[in-house]
Write a structure and sequence with these properties.
This protein is of the alpha/beta class and 349 residues long. It folds into 2 domains: 3-9 and 232-341, D-serine dehydratase-like domain (Lyase, Ornithine Decarboxylase, Chain A, domain 1, Beta Barrel), CATH 2.40.37.20; 32-222, Alpha-Beta Barrel (TIM Barrel). It is 28% helix and 25% strand. The chain is built from 9 helices and 16 strands. The protein has helices at 15-31, 46-54, 65-73, 88-100, 110-123, 145-157, 175-188, 226-230, 318-322, and strands at 10-14, 35-36, 60-62, 78-84, 102-107, 127-133, 161-168, 195-199, 215-217, 241-252, 255-258, 285-289, 294-297, 310-313, 327-332, 335-341. The strands form 2 sheets. Strands 1, 10, 11, 12, 13, 14, 15 and 16 form an 8-stranded mixed sheet that branches. It is elongated and about 70 Å long. Bound molecules: pyridoxal-5'-phosphate (PLP).
């Protein structure tokens, strides 16, 4: 079976491209002595996680427990969940995961650490907890080295917990100074941050300039997409995940309608026009989407796609697309080798 035999819209993944992306980033990290812990939220498929680990990754990163459960069940056994795990139901699931895999989690509040401490008290165990620091990403994370040290001490004092180090996202240019000051203050109270984990595909090739960061987490790099091309860390050729769609209507000379809309593509912005890039029609702009229709302006295309033609779309953001598709068609040079279920799709808890 070839890609031409697949019904559309369909998410395809070029295995040669994936293997090359894995190799390039892993070898950069190896060259610089940085541990690599890929984020699986981009693919949500254990088979890809196994390829990342086989290439040299120290383990994987998950954002949600549901993703971690899928990975652990598939014997991906070293998992960092970069999320504050809050609430009884989730803490119970975390404890179950601790019996299946080597787990680490993050915390940015005394509340979260107390939850981990209480959950592990009845379990025994040795849960590693990293303190999440906001180094300019303006998302979760403690706001100062002093706060980080306070939490690290709370973690260190809890019998079932082990202070695992520091975690931040993304690894901003400001991160090294903040992290180094935190390490200094930790050492002053006798604590060592074994892992200092940064992340982001856009900044991955700067990881060697961001000491004391000693671990990096990239997610999007495995597929790449329009956003990583825009960030200058990938070329169109590196974009392994592509959607094939069919032109189902040409209501005007300058408009084509695809058989996929917002339930096939995401509306993530990239700074460029439209909701995807058409490698065979670079001037085409998907300016709008309804649920099942992609609205594409083809006024600037020299040759305009006809009804029935199949067009390739490189998504703006591969990670979002993954969560919209039940399966990916894995191919090499257009020959379909496997259909892989996106096993952690939709697992937002
Ligand atoms: C905590 C964390 N680490 C790593 C990543 C990976 O970043 P990217 O998708 O840019 O590779 C993300 C992405 O959202 C993240 O939230």
């Amino acid at each position: 079976m070839t890609l031409d035999d697949l019904d559309t819209p369909v998410l395809t993944v070029d295995l040669d491209g994936v293997d090359r992306n894995i190799r390039v980033v892993q070898s950069y990290m190896d060259t610089h002595g940085i541990a690599f812990r890929p984020h699986i939220k981009t693919h949500k498929i254990p088979a890809f996680a196994h390829r990342q680990v086989a290439a040299g990754a120290v383990g994987v990163t998950c954002q949600k427990l549901g993703e971690a459960e899928v990975m652990a069940a598939a014997h991906v056994l070293d998992i960092l969940v970069t999320f504050n795990i809050v609430g009884r139901q989730k803490l119970e699931r975390l404890m179950r995961l601790c019996r299946m895999a080597r787990m680490a989690v993050v915390a940015d509040s005394e509340y979260t650490v107390r939850g981990y401490a209480e959950a592990t008290r009845s379990e025994g165990g040795d849960l590693r907890v990293l303190v999440e620091m906001d180094t300019g990403g303006r998302r979760a994370g403690v706001q100062s080295p002093e706060e980080a040290v306070r939490l690290a001490r709370q973690i260190d004092a809890a019998p079932g917990l082990r202070f695992g180090g520091l975690m931040t996202y993304p690894t901003t240019a400001e991160a090294p100074a903040i992290l180094a000051e935190t390490v200094r203050q930790l050492e002053a109270v006798g604590l060592r941050a074994e892992v200092i984990s940064g992340g982001g595909t856009a900044c991955q090739f700067h990881a060697h300039e961001r000491a004391p960061v000693n671990e990096h987490r990239s997610g999007t790099y495995i597929y790449n997409d329009r956003s990583t091309v825009a960030a200058g860390v990938a070329t169109w050729n590196d974009c392994a995940a592509r959607v094939i769609a069919t032109v189902v209507s040409r209501p005007t000379p300058d408009r084509m309608i695809l058989d996929g809309g917002s339930k096939t593509f995401t509306n993530d912005p990239t700074g460029e026009d439209g909701f995807g890039y058409f490698p065979d029609y670079p001037e085409a702009v998907m300016y709008s989407m309804s649920e099942e229709h992609g609205h594409v302006d083809i006024s600037r295309c020299r040759r305009k796609p006809e009804i029935g033609e199949r067009v390739v779309v490189i998504p703006n953001h591969a990670c979002g697309i993954t969560n919209l598709h039940d399966e990916v068609m894995v191919h090499r040079k257009g020959r379909v080798e496997a259909i892989w279920k996106v096993q952690a799709r939709g697992l937002i808890r």
